[in-house]
Each structure stands twice: as C-alpha cells, then as structure tokens.
Amino acid sequence: MGLNKNRVQADAVVVGAGPAGASAAFYLSRAGLDVIVLERAVFPRDKTCGDGLTPAAVVELLRMGIDPRKSPGYQTNEGLVVIGAGNRVELPWPEQASRPGFGSSRPRISLDQSLAMHARTQGAKVWEGCNVTGPVVEGGRVVGVQVARKADPLAGPTAKDKELFEALTPKEAWPTEGKRQAATADREQVSQLPTEFEVRARLVVDCGGVAAKLATRAGRIKLENRPMGVAARTYYRSDRAKEANMESQLELWDGKPGESNLLPGYGWMFPLAGGVVNVGLGSVSSTSAATKLPYKQIFKSWTAATPSQWGYNSENQIGQMKSAALPMAFNRKPQYQGGLALIGDAAGMVSPFNGEGIAPALAAGRMLADAATHAFARTGEAAFDSAMEAFVQHMSDEWGGYYRLGTVFVRLIERPKIMQACTRYGLPVDRLMVAVHKLLSDGYERHGGSIDDRVIAFLARLVPKV
C-alpha cells in the first residue's frame, strides 16, 4: 500500500464492508492483492435484514473457512415452515451435493463485523468511518474514489449500535482480543489521514448497498423494469428462538386467521442465538417503484393478533423497527466496466423469489476475485478489462436465467387471486412443495441432481437472461 498525505494507492479498493465487500476483500487479499475496504460506519453497525442464511449462504461461509455449526453467534436451522390458507408445511433443507442440508442465522450487526474481521485475517485493510463521496475518473475509467472521513473510528460505534450489539450477541461471539487489536490498528491508521483524501486502485468495487451512490455517480443507472422489494423487521426475546425452523407467513391477519381482515404483504420469524427472534414483514413490486404500504401499522396489527406466548410485544422488543428496500434481479448494470465492478445490493442481486441477498453477495465476492486474479496478471487496460469480463459472464451464467424466472414469479404473485390459489391448492401438495422449495431458496443443482433440479436448471437456461 502506497501512502502519502492526500492519496493512498492499493491494488483494489472495496466500498462497503457488508457481506459482498467482506467476501470480495477476503478473496482478493488471499490472492495476494493489496486491498483497502472503506466502510462509512464504525463497527458494529446495524443493517435492516431478515438475518436468515439459507444453505446457499452457508456453503459460501464454509468456503471462507467459517462453519456456523462451530462458530459462536450463529443459530443453525433445519428448514422452513410455510403457513397460509389454513396449511402448515414443513420443508427441510434438501441435502445436495453442492450445498449442505442446513441453514443458519445471525444478526447483521454482528455478522458484518465478524466477516470484515475475517477479511483482515487475509491482509485486507478495513477502514471504518470513511465515506466515499465519488469516483476518481481519468480517461473514462474509474481509477479510484474520493473519501471524506465521516467519523473518528477510534471513538467506536454509536451508542445505539453498541447497545443493540450487546443485546443481540452472546458474549462468546464478541470479537477476540486479537481481532480487536487488528481493528484498532486500522482505526489508528485512518485517524492519521486527512479529513479528505483519495484511494487509487486498478480495481474499484462498489459494495455500497441499495443506494449504490458510487455506481450512480459513475453513470450506472438502475433499471426500472426490475422488481423491488421492501422489508421491515425488529427483534424480540421469545421462546420461539428454540424452534428448529425458520418460518414464513404467506398471509397476515389482524385477528383470527380466516375470520378477520387480511393485511397486505408476507411475514417471517427467524430464530437467532441467545433467545432472540427476528420478526418482519415485506412486500414486492414487479417494477422499481416499491410498494408504498404503512408497514408500521400493518406490523402492529399483525403482531397484536399473534399468540401472547410468542412474546411479540413492546416489553420483549429489542431495538427499533427498521425498513429497507431490496433491489432485485440485477437492477444495475454493467457489473463491470472501465475499472468499476458492482456486487451485492449495489448490483441489485437480491433474489426475486425469496428476498435473500446475503448468499449471492458472498458468492459474487468470490467470483469477482477469481476473475481479478487473472486480470491483475495482465498488462494494459484492455487486457485487464477482457479478463474481468469472465466475472460478468459467471454472474450471468449463475443467476441470469434464474432471476428471469424470478421476475415472472413476482408478476404472478402480485395478482391476489393467483397468490390465493397457489397458497390454497399448492401448499398441501407435498411433492410440488419440495420442488418449489428448491426453486424459491436457490437450492437446486446447476448440473445433475434430481428431476426437480434438472427441470429448474433447464428452465433457467431456456429463458432469456436478465
């Protein structure tokens, strides 16, 4: 890393230290590249999310050397329970050659910090309190980013984030002394930098989330014909944290199911470690105009009608209810061009089928590093860009057709009568739901597997890629 008063030089600069940024930094650093990650907040910091980790996410953690079954802070689960139209269906995670037969969960306030610290073990620098204000462009290429120090990282996180972290994270999952020392070393380095500076790099990676401010300022405009979801969630202390499965409610009622008012949206309950559950609701629109619903009022009406023993009340609530947009189906392109790559929410990688963003974000970081390893071995911008096109192709091959199917799925379930028919007549058919479970959770084998896997893979290859 080259360092002077106003300019820092690295091989790659990663904007945002969420799952996408941490994964990219981990793999790029492991490949021997000099990597700087710029995170606007100071860890631990909260992010709105359901916190669920399907087997597609778990396998990426395992690839990074993290086993949720053996790592404190994670809660393993066996599958998904789906409830709707008087039906309750238990769907175990399928045991696949390419994915484990279990899922997990962990609050983002501790997950993101732990992944960023894991990236440090490979040599990545994670600089907190650094707000990226725009790209540095030369000759039509993005060659770096402009940075303004937003906060003194040595001062630590906000009081609210610190309180939430301590409430949601078992003490055995708090960072070790060694990891705290590594974080302090990075924070001390940041504190010595001027309030405004540049980071120059041959590869710039925007992992800055749904706002994608860097990508937008570099001219990557979001596509209006992609689905957009909205999710809202909070935390409760509840005995339901002991349950073995995540839960999805396809119908929300303000009283007794089937005998009261049906509310818009869908709901979930994900068990977490430490006797806590993540409870939330969401909706999805087939266009970039997210549905405008009174989420707080819907949430209040729904949770007030749930059984009292679940504990969904103000006395058990931890932290505030928060909401966030979910950009889906590659809603911002190209994923690489002229030195700038996009992954995670910045690239609109949330699945239209189930709203999951962590799994594709982690996988995209790995794919990006695979291509970048070859790109950095080449001389000249044209050769570098040519090698990086392998990353774009890999993303398209992995999710292009699958997300196209997802956009069709969203258009169908937007129609209440179709959704009601699917819920009423589809949920009771066990054989059908096994295949649907694989489809919605991205749990199908891309090659080989059962007849279900082969049919889904065939359809994903058949349709035009998004």
TrEMBL record:
<dbReference type="InterPro" id="IPR050407">
    <property type="entry name" value="Geranylgeranyl_reductase"/>
</dbReference>
<dbReference type="InterPro" id="IPR036188">
    <property type="entry name" value="FAD/NAD-bd_sf"/>
</dbReference>
<dbReference type="GO" id="GO:0071949">
    <property type="term" value="F:FAD binding"/>
</dbReference>
<protein>
    <submittedName>
        <fullName>FAD-dependent oxidoreductase</fullName>
    </submittedName>
</protein>
<feature type="domain" description="FAD-binding">
    <location>
        <begin position="10"/>
        <end position="134"/>
    </location>
</feature>
<dbReference type="Pfam" id="PF01494">
    <property type="entry name" value="FAD_binding_3"/>
</dbReference>
<dbReference type="InterPro" id="IPR002938">
    <property type="entry name" value="FAD-bd"/>
</dbReference>
